[in-house]
Amino acid sequence: MSARILDGNALSADVRAQLAESVKEVKARGVTPCLVVILVGDNPASAVYVRNKVAGCEKAGMRSLRFDYPADTDPKRVLDKIAELNADDSVHGILVQLPLPPQFEEKEVLEAISVDKDVDGFHAENVGRLSQGQRAFFPCTPHGVMKLLAAGDIDVSGADAVVIGRSNIVGKPMAMLLTQAGATVTVCHSKTRDLAAHTRRADILIVAIGRPMFITGEMVKPGAAVIDVGMNRIPAGLPNEGKLCGDVDFASVKDVAGAITPVPGGVGPMTITMLLANTLESAQRAAERKGV
Ligand code: NAP
């Protein structure tokens, strides 16, 4: 039997249509949601992500501004720009595209962004709020995964969930969101002994490791929901070399899993959608503060 496809493109289109309606409402109150994206350097993947984020904003009726800096920029220039944007009431979200060039201290840059405009949800205070179950901007990729699970009617409460990967942007916040939703969560990483023993008992398996087609059918519990966060290129010498692929071997896993996200068209589109949702929420909070 082949797994049900959890279609991120379709869900994303639905959510973005709802967002566009809410954008109209907040604009009618005199507040136009505005996201600023900062890109340092010329990483081609980052340039594509930034383009898609800016285009997503514009399509939803939001304003978006983009500031590009050369790779050898003094970090102070970027920190000064962030300070200026923090003080600008017309800006609701500030995002610095990662990775940054080596002369930057990533943590320093992320923490320079006002907590109230941290629509990526990477500021330590937002991470702390998330861990305490308080109102926060949730990091976009794990938040998008939670939406995909909900839309796919996957029961999270009581489920055994296994997250592979413990990065600050995906694995760790993913584990926190699943825990808050009532799952029993195991986080695996490169030091995990006998990874397959963990993955085989997962009702929900979230894979965020950055290794092409790493998880195969025999590592998956029959009927499990498998969410593939990975975005890789198919290595040289394999069929479809250079094409986009996930961390999950879709061909073998789809015959075992109960539900699965494809790559592309699964988690990826939801990430930008949740960024737009966070920017809208920030603008709505700004409208509340203004009393309009
Ligand atoms: P990352 O920072 O490189 O973290 C990778 C994690 O995977 C680490 O925790 C690492 O363990 C673990 N890992 C690596 N090899 C492993 C192995 N053989 N067995 C078990 N665990 C292993 O990556 P990331 O930023 O979280 O991204 C992960 C993937 O998701 C990448 O393909 C990235 O492109 C993709 N991504 C997609 C989206 C999207 O919108 N779809 C968004 C963000 C990221 P250690 O901690 O022990 O090193």
UniProtKB/TrEMBL annotation:
Print the keywords alphabetically. Amino-acid biosynthesis, Histidine biosynthesis, Hydrolase, Methionine biosynthesis, Multifunctional enzyme, NADP, One-carbon metabolism, Oxidoreductase, Purine biosynthesis
Q: Which GO terms describe its biological process?
A: L-histidine biosynthetic process; methionine biosynthetic process; purine nucleotide biosynthetic process; tetrahydrofolate interconversion
List of residues binding NADP(+): 165-167
* One GO cellular component term: cytosol
A GO MF annotation of the entry reads:
methenyltetrahydrofolate cyclohydrolase activity
Domain spans labelled Tetrahydrofolate dehydrogenase/cyclohydrolase catalytic: 6-120
Tetrahydrofolate dehydrogenase/cyclohydrolase NAD(P)-binding domain segment(s): 139-286
In short, the EC number is 1.5.1.5, 3.5.4.9
Its biological purpose is as follows: Catalyzes the oxidation of 5,10-methylenetetrahydrofolate to 5,10-methenyltetrahydrofolate and then the hydrolysis of 5,10-methenyltetrahydrofolate to 10-formyltetrahydrofolate.
The protein's assembly and partners: Homodimer.
Entry's HAMAP family? THF_DHG_CYH
Provide the family line. Answer: Belongs to the tetrahydrofolate dehydrogenase/cyclohydrolase family.
Name listed for the protein in its UniProt record: Bifunctional protein FolD
Its organism's taxonomic lineage begins at: Bacteria, Pseudomonadati, Pseudomonadota, Betaproteobacteria, Rhodocyclales
